Amino acid sequence: MAHYAKVSNNLVTQVIVAEPEFFETFVDSSPGEWIQTSYNTYGGVHSDGGTPLRKNYAGVGFTYDSVRDAFIAPQPYPSWVLDEDTYQWDAPVPYPTDDLMYSWDEDTTSWVEITGET
Amino acid sequence: MALTKVTSGAVTGLATSATTDTTDASNITTGTIADARFPSTLPAISGANLTGIETVTKSATAPSSPAAGDMWFDTTSGTTAMKVWTGSAWDQMSNKFSATGGTVTTSGGYKYHTFTSSGTFTTTASGAIDYLIVAGGGGGGNHSGSGGGAGGYISGSSSITTANYSVVVGGGGSGANSGSPGSLDGQANGGNSSFNGSTAIGGGYGGAQNGGSYGTVGGNSGGSGGGAPRTGNTAGSGTSGQGYAGSSGFTSSDPYPGGAGGGASQTGQAVSGQGANGGNGSTWLNGTTYAGGGGGNLQSGSPGGNGGSGGGGHGGDSGSYNQGAVLWGGKGQNGSTNTGGGGGGGGHQATNSVAGYYGAGGSGIVIIRYAV
């Protein structure tokens, strides 16, 4: 089954299941255009080993970058940067690798350990 | 001398036809009366005294206490069809409803048109239908991830006329894209589904935990609401008549349970010692249950929450998935395809290397049925 995202002003407003011929007769008065997306594509990888399409499966609220031909989720924090390979957002500081649990503090742009009840 | 008078009976040996009064119809015993002997316009006669003829009731209301074989011309606007009583139901004989579109099956006296993908439902007459519209389920969240809400569930009956009806099937909402703890990072609401002016709203995405004072991403509202991590956080609400709210987790501390998405018939269910269970879905006329909420993740200990009946994805179990990196809690499962089930919440990961780690919502479905 193919999926299509409705993109208006570069913003995804709807995601549906459809085949290409559906749009030959579908009467749609809402602004924007339908762009195909892949349910199984995340971070530029197709989870079933197929060909990835437009980097990420589109979600309502995502943007569509026509230059990069990629669907991109909303930026989690202002300091996070877009990975130009996966088109996902990365923290400017790598996550610690000491098996403790951390959360991101945008005020200090650092990872802060979660120590208990909050 | 001319013959001026013949006395009756004086001539013998004549044929009967020569002596019969043909103006008396009772004397006509053989042969066929020629068409020309009939007037071009027959005289008006009343059928009131005719017997042995089945009558037809012409009304917008069905005859009461009908016998098998009784006929009724239904004058209801939009129907206007001849019907016959079978002994148990009125069977439409004329202007009979039929349609094309979707995958067509017949069961239990009904024809079903199932749309797992958007399409067109084309009718060739007016008639009564039952319908089900389920939107796509919401995506699961990350980091004590909460389950996505089920897609909105609408069912009903209506009369429709001859037309082409667009059927739109909503896609499942994206699960969180990466392991960004505590952020809204790619989990999305499901897509809306629609038919004949009714729209089922996509399920709300599941929320994500953040520690300390850094806030929490609650569940989003939708057809059914997405869950919220741990207790005290705000889960998404459902849409009235379409689904229920999500739940938060059972506690606010270790084992950091994720909340669960609401379903078509039940809110998400917080449960001690595990991720919250997704709210159950509803069972339609075909006997299948749709639109279950996604279960929540559990980051410390196990297990994750169950998906609600009707396709909700299971929340990730603690330690059930290990990429060799920093992982807390397992992979959330996707909501089942064409159920509108919400995606299961997942744990968090330190890298973005695990594609689809958080459950995506299941796509929606539209089914239309009518009696045959």
Q: What's the total helix number of chain B?
A: 1
Structural class of chain A: mainly beta
Strand content of chain B: 15-25%
Cα(first) to Cα(last) distance of chain A is 43 Å
What is the tally of helical segments of chain A?
0
Helicity of chain A, in percent? under 10%
Q: Per the principal axes of the C-alpha atoms, what is the gross shape of chain B? A: rod-shaped
Largest interface (CB within 8 Å) is between:
A-B, 55 and 59 residues
The major sheet of chain A is characterized as: 3 strands, antiparallel
Walk across the major sheet of chain B and give the strand order.
5-8-11-12-13
Strand content of chain A: 25-35%
Helix-strand topology string of chain B: HEEEEEEEEEEEEEEEEEE
Number of beta-strand segments of chain B: 18
Could you explain the architecture of this structure?
The complex is a heterodimer of chains A (118) and B (372). Chain A contains no helices and eleven strands. Chain A has strands at residues 3-8, 11-17, 33-37, 41-42, 45-46, 63-65, 70-72, 81-82, 89-90, 102-105, 110-113. In chain A, the strands form five sheets. In chain A, strands 2-1-3 form a three-stranded antiparallel β-sheet, with no helix packed on it. A two-stranded antiparallel ribbon of chain A has the order 4-5. Chain A has a two-stranded antiparallel ribbon with strand order 6-7. Chain B contains one helix and 18 strands. Chain B has one helix at 16-19, and strands at residues 56-59, 71-74, 81-85, 90-92, 99-100, 103-107, 110-115, 119-123, 127-134, 153-160, 164-170, 193-195, 198-200, 282-283, 289-290, 327-328, 348-349, 365-371. Chain B starts with 15 loop residues before the first helix and ends with a strand. The chains are: A mainly beta (118), B mainly beta (372). The interface between A and B is large, with 55 and 59 residues.
